[in-house]
Design goal:
Length: 333
């Protein structure tokens, strides 16, 4: 008011976005994006909201026409129901008016950046479901069900709409370039090619494709791993900063025995003497079992005798890459 300027963002939202800038030193885009989204998810208390409740609230508010536009007042009504329910279960953690304001602010930033005051019903659903808590494959199932037709099958257009709405979440954080840009066409093509270009796919085919972590969606499974790793304690010591036990992600070398790295050293690209960044590592978001320890030990033994050439020739694909905006055919749809 004093500066006589207009701002779309709630002051708390501005603080949150400024705090996300600290994460820009994370070298890997999928992790950087997922950690930012995790911070956002917790600030909006959506990490307390389960998928089933989200789905019930949509039914309660009769949000069945996905192509319809919904105004701000109706979005507020829906969010108020969600957060009032959460407040009953988590009294000290949920401040209903603040959460409604913040979540509305976020939804409009993601799906109505021009502030027309309306967003598509489907965008609202996909935004809230993506950040709800639940098992990863259950989330894929819910997202698929949201866009599938009455036959519970999904065509290229429907999958395109789902991926388009989902990619807006990293896009709003300025993190879209690494996921193939805003062009979801190559991802749609990759999913249908994997299923012999049939006109429609089933939920199982969709989940099988998502398990390969396609580039445009890789931030979602990584978000789930980030959440799982938060409280994990590993009985190991970081060879770089000497943190012990390692909390969060643990990275174990598959080239050197007893070489472990904590997440902050790994994300910032620090290494100890004699260990190169291109050496294979295995990631654990929960403490290892004895079976995994034995398996890693045998891999280290094999890798001990492998040359630099072998690692250059066999790069490990972390996810299914899709063509970027600059390659591929012209947009068909």
């Amino acid at each position: 008011h004093e500066t006589q300027t207009t701002c779309w963002d709630h002051p708390k939202m501005t603080d949150l976005f400024q705090s996300l800038a600290d994460l820009n030193n994370v070298r890997f885009s999928a992790y950087r994006t997922a950690i930012k989204i995790r911070r956002l998810q917790k600030a909006l208390c959506l990490d307390l909201l389960d998928l089933n409740t989200t789905s019930e609230v949509f039914k309660q508010h009769k949000l069945s026409q996905n192509d319809q536009l919904i105004g701000v007042q109706d979005v507020i009504g829906c969010l108020t129901t969600i957060y009032s329910g959460l407040e009953e279960k988590h009294k000290d953690m949920v401040n209903v008016p603040l959460c409604v304001d913040m979540c509305l602010n976020w939804l409009l930033n993601v799906y109505d950046s021009g502030r027309t005051g309306k967003i598509r019903v489907q965008s609202l659903k996909i935004g809230l479901m993506s950040l709800s808590k639940g098992l990863l494959e259950e989330k894929y199932r819910y997202l698929f069900k949201e866009v599938a037709g009455p036959t519970e099958m999904c065509d290229q257009r429907q999958l395109g709409l789902l991926l388009h709405d989902a990619i807006q979440i990293p896009r709003q954080l300025g993190e879209v370039a690494a996921f193939g840009g805003s062009n979801i066409e190559p991802s749609v093509r990759s999913c249908f090619q994997q299923n012999h270009n049939k006109p429609e796919i089933t939920v199982k085919q969709f989940i099988d494709w998502m398990r390969l972590e396609p580039q445009s969606m890789v931030w979602l499974p990584v978000l789930h791993r980030v959440a799982a790793a938060e409280t994990a304690k590993h009985q190991a010591k970081c060879n770089i900063c000497k943190e012990c036990p390692i909390v969060g992600f643990r990275y174990r070398s598959l080239k050197h025995f007893n070489y472990d790295v904590c997440q902050s050293c790994f994300f910032s690209g620090r290494t100890a003497k004699g260990h190169k960044l291109h050496y294979p590592m295995v990631e654990y978001c929960i403490p290892t079992t004895s079976g995994e320890d034995v398996r890693d030990f045998t891999k280290v033994l094999k890798n001990k005798f492998r040359s630099k050439k072998y690692f250059a020739k066999h790069p490990r694909l972390g996810y299914l890459p899709v063509q970027t905006v600059l390659e591929g055919d012209n947009l068909e749809t």
